[in-house]
Amino acid sequence: MWGMTPPIETDAPADGLLPATRRSLLHRVALGQSQGRAPSLVGAVARDGRLVWSGARGTVEGRTPDAHTQYRIGSITKTFTAVLVLRLRDEGLLDLADPLERHLPGTSVGELTLAQLLAHSSGLRAEPPGDWWERTPGALRPGLSDILGDGAALHPAGRRHHYSNPGFALLGAVVERLRGAPWREVLHREVLAPLSLDRTTYDPAAPHADGWAVHPWADAVLPEPLHDLGAMAPAGQLWSTAADLCRFGAFLLHGDDRVLSADSVREMRTPSAPPEPGDWAGGYGLGTQLARRGRRTLAGHSGSLPGFVACLWTQEEEGLVAVALANATSGPTTGAIAADLVTAVADAEPRLPEPWRPMGSFDRELLELAGPWYWGTNGFGLKLVRDGGVELYPLKGDGRGSRFVPVAEGADGTPSWRGLDGYYAGETLRVVRSPDGSVSHLDLGTFAFTRGPYDPADAVPGGVDPEGWR
């Protein structure tokens, strides 16, 4: 049901996927653990809100881990923080265009907008000053001034994507100030508890994996230190499980009105910053990484802290969520592994299309609008769809197609629609009538769509040469 996150069934049934698909998924996890030289690696896949597969290799405290074993998830935490900020926006307590100074006065970067911080387009440095912050206690950076330091801005705001951990520490501080409570408490109350993410916690809760560094030139391991990140926690503190992250991924696809609407999570997945130079297959939304894998778009986030690497990917069209978690500082490419899990299921078991059904009741007068229209000499088709919407698509080539939803009719009863996607997203499509009440043409963002290509009888902007076609 839209508006409510589908419940994740945490015990995957044996018939969740075809045997060949399950074998392929396990092989990918086994390969990732072996080649990445990780003490353990867990993978999981959910589809349409149901955990359909999980598998693991290696050991945690002498046993094979499962989808309920905790790992530290690093920067996947940023997506949780972004959800909290979007909740504040939807409640009217802030606007993403607001400068930071309005909600967190006294920083040295108060002119940056909340949207720029969410999209990593603020120009802030990547890391806080001082020693490697992920391997040192957060108490060494007690305040925001210790996180920003001098010369925190490296690039002009809004001009390029530059990943910034301090930027999300600032967003966490905004959440704390507007809610009047610590970030971890707000997160538990407003996100973790409503979504039943019982195994997603600030501190590790057994059973959990320990973090290890693997020697690059020997099969030897070294325990990594475990620290509370303090004020940097909103950028990377959390622990979670493959099952919990699959549930969270389902929420990122469909929304849940108790936490964030479907429209708002879709906004999180919408590109907000350009890709980094040389990485045109990637991008960033609002607290969400974007990637292209073949013809498919993935949305989610990767994460790493000393001793752990993690990745969560969602794929909207196939309704898929994939997670990969490992307890090694480096080696396992969890981002590629999770993407491969998505691809393996989508290729082997593509989603069945919904059965076609007639529209049922509709405005019969709109039928006269269906069919071919012309923008200049470019042919388009206009098709009526469910709930009073329409689709406009090029009859050939890759022209400017869009879907439209109905909006309030004009004073004269003339219907109109608002673009949902493509070139005409947000633009208004309206019917223009002649004095006798017949349809003259369609107006779409000032472009006139007529029944014929440059027909003198139609309302063509600029007119038509009186000698006509020749």
UniProtKB/TrEMBL annotation:
Mention any Pfam family matching this sequence.
Answer: DUF7586
Swiss-Prot/TrEMBL keywords = Hydrolase
Family matches, as Gene3D superfamilies: DD-peptidase/beta-lactamase superfamily (3.40.710.10)
DUF7586 domain boundaries: 363-451
Q: Which Gene Ontology MF annotations are present?
A: hydrolase activity
For the Beta-lactamase-related domain, which residue ranges apply?
Answer: 34-345
* SUPFAM superfamilies membership: beta-lactamase/transpeptidase-like
Protein name stated in the entry: Serine hydrolase domain-containing protein
Name its species. Streptomyces tremellae
Taxonomy of origin reads: Bacteria, Bacillati, Actinomycetota, Actinomycetes, Kitasatosporales
